[in-house]
Amino acid sequence: MALAASLPRWTAVSGALAAGVVYSTMYLGIHWATDVVAGAPLDVGSAAVGARIVTRVEGRSPGEAPDPLDGPTADPKPGDD
User: Domains of the chain: which residue ranges?
Assistant: First the structure.
């Protein structure tokens, strides 16, 4: 979850949520530490696949930054009203 945050402003929030999930599932006995360690590569892999899907759907090249979320864009696309 923490590695899935691609926007810097959400990194701290997702990191805190990930730590809370790890702690609570181990505290409640739902998962062991080995489960958490084995799940880390799954997190990284799913984040990479998700980023690739979003990149393809939005038609960006892999290294290109996403459109800004706030304010007008330099060259608005048709239909962006």
Answer: 28-59
